[in-house]
């Protein structure tokens, strides 16, 4: 039983409302950028790379700023500025759409490390996997509901631009809930030399970077599904399957008290590799393969989002929670930045090459964590 369950739920429901808003934008972005504004696929890959690339720096800065100036203050600031993504509803071309999305996404990254640090702050080490599991589960539950209303409204031929403007409402609710959390009010004066097991820390950061190569923007499977079926709402629905699996298994992984390193390696990185291989060679079958593969990718991400921050929080002292979470977010963003550029170029040749690249990099992450399992006492 979580001692500070109310604070855990406040942080988690803030994530729920945030995803209820911006995930509808995430799913809509490739449709607007490529299918409506006619931007070429390589440019879409570059656009996603810019989103995540600058997001890398923003995540790192957000973690440091949270430890120095107060995690709650920095998390709220970033959360408010996510509202820029909703302004895509006013965009008139793909350049404007990209600018609005980039700014909002950068500040989404900026607020994530201090918010994760707040979660670590209100829990004990034994509670962390459950707390981060709840956070991820409600986070993705909001995203799943976003995909449901987006899919239904698109099916009913509601303007996608109107839907995007509507997403500002749950984003505002997210900030209100986050402001009620009783944590992260004070900054710490010192953050240096607070990592207890440096080898483990940097191996996890490196592994999440390589997994970032394989955790491509789900816009690529959305485009693959849309192109194969000819229906945009079926492409969005694939994202819903991914999110549903991620939410369910995030909750289950947190409750099951699993071994963290083994679960991260086998349930996270290895399953991610299998899912990407499936997209490479089985996508031609149609929905009978695309939706199960999306489900597998959801399980993979649920594992990484539950066990990566849990491991990092346990090998970092409290005064550096924000900074260490900033490194974690930055590591993933570096991988996603480079991964989306390469995915965009390879996808232009054949989606098989793109997804095969993702599978190989996910296997590298698996091997890195396996090295820690085989040498558990190394620091």
Automatic annotation (TrEMBL):
Keywords: Membrane, Transmembrane, Transmembrane helix. It comes from the Archaea. The chain crosses the membrane at residues 12-37, 43-61, 94-110, 131-152, 158-180, 200-218, 233-252, 264-282, 353-373. One of its GO terms (molecular function) is transmembrane transporter activity. CDD domains: MFS_MJ1317_like (cd17370). Pfam families: MFS_1. Residues 163-379 form the Major facilitator superfamily (MFS) profile domain. This is Major facilitator superfamily MFS_1.
């Amino acid at each position: 039983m979580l001692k500070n369950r109310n604070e855990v739920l406040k942080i988690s429901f803030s994530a729920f409302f945030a995803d209820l808003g911006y995930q509808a934008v995430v799913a809509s972005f490739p449709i607007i950028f490529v299918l409506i504004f006619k931007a070429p696929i390589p440019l879409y890959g570059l656009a996603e790379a810019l989103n995540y690339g600058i997001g890398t720096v923003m995540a790192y800065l957000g973690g440091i700023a949270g430890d120095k100036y107060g995690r709650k203050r920095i998390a709220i600031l970033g959360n408010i500025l996510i509202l820029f993504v909703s302004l895509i509803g006013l965009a008139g071309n793909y350049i404007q759409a990209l600018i609005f999305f980039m700014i909002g996404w950068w500040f989404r990254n900026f607020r994530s490390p201090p918010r994760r640090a707040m979660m670590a702050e209100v829990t004990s080490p034994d509670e962390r996997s459950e707390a981060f599991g709840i956070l991820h589960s409600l986070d993705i539950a909001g995203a799943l509901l976003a995909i449901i209303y987006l899919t239904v409204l698109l099916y009913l031929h509601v303007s996608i631009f109107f839907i995007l403007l509507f997403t500002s409402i749950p984003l505002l609710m997210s900030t209100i809930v986050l402001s009620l959390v009783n944590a992260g009010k004070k900054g710490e004066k010192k953050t240096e030399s607070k990592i207890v097991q440096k080898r483990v820390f940097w191996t996890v950061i490196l592994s999440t970077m390589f997994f970032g190569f394989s955790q491509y923007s789900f816009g690529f499977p959305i485009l693959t599904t849309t192109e194969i079926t000819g229906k945009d709402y079926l492409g969005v629905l694939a994202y819903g399957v991914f999110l549903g699996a991620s939410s369910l298994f995030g909750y289950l992984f947190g409750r099951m008290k699993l071994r963290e390193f083994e679960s991260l390696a086998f349930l996270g990185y290895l399953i991610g590799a299998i899912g990407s291989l499936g997209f490479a060679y089985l996508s031609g079958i149609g929905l009978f393969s695309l939706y199960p593969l999306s489900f597998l990718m959801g399980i993979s991400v649920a594992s990484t989002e539950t066990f990566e921050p849990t491991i990092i929080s346990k090998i970092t002292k409290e005064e550096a929670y924000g900074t260490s979470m900033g490194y974690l977010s930055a590591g993933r963003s570096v991988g996603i930045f480079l991964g989306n550029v390469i995915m965009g170029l390879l996808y232009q040749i054949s989606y098989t090459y793109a997804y095969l690249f993702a599978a190989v990099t996910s296997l590298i992450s698996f091997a890195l964590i396996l090295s820690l399992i085989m040498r558990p006492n190394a620091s």
